[in-house]
Amino acid sequence: MNHHSKLSFNRIAIVCASFAVAIFTSAPILAQQKAIVTELNATEAAATKALSVISKPGSYQLARGIVNNHAGYDSVLVTASDVTIDLLGLTIMCTAATTGAGIDATGQSNVVIHNGIITGCGGPAIIAGNNANISGITASENGRAGGGIGGISCGIGCLVNNNTLQGNMGIGMSFSDATSGYLGNVLQGNDGNTVGATGQVSGGTSLGQNLCNGVVC
Questions:
Q1: pLDDT, the chain, mean
Q2: Per residue in 16-54, pLDDT tens?
Q3: Distance between CA atoms of 18 and 8, rounded to whole angstroms?
Q4: The domain that contains 134 carries what CATH number?
Q5: Which one of 108, 162, 166, 171 has the largest count of C-beta atoms within 10 Å of its C-beta?
Q6: By residue range, what is the domain housing residue 138?
C-alpha cells in the first residue's frame, strides 16, 4: 500500500469511527423498569390501605396480575410524581364491590399509565392528578361502590387516549377542566346509559375520534 493509499484508508477509518461514536452517543439510554411489588406484608398493607405501593419516581411494570378482594384497599397506590406504569397487558381484577381504586395516583403529577385491564373495582379504575397520560387501558365494571366516577378520573393537563371504558357504574371519564384532552377512546354503557354521550364523559376537551355509545363525542 503506497503513502497516498494509506492516508486515504486512515481518513475513511476516522470517518467511520466518528459515525459509530455519533450513533452510540445519540441513542437513548433506557431506564430500567422496576417490578411493582404485589405482596406487601400485612403491616404495610394496613398502613397504606393498598395491595401495592409505588413511592418513588421511576418506571414500573406489573410482573403479574393483581386480584383484590380487600374492602377499602386500592390495588395500586402511587404516592410519588413522575411515575410510569406499564401493566404489560395484564389484569387488575377486584372481586369485591367494596374495594378501592384500581390505580390511585391522587395528587401526583406526570404519571403515565398504559397497556392493561382493570375490572370490577369498587372505586374508579384510575384516579390520576395533573398532567397524566393514560392510554391502552380497558376498564369495565368499576365504580361498584358508588361515588360517581367508574372509569378514569384526571386533573388538569391530562391526555387520555385509545382506551376502552365499558359498563362502569359511574361516569366513563371525568376531567377537572378543559385543559385535559381525550382522543380515540371508546365508551359504552357507562353510568347506566346506553344511548348518546350522557354519562360517558365529564369535562375535558375532545381531540377527536371518540365514540360514546356509538355516537361521536
A1: 87
A2: 333 222 222 222 323 468 888 777 888 989 999 999 999
A3: 15
A4: 2.160.20
A5: 171
A6: 31-216
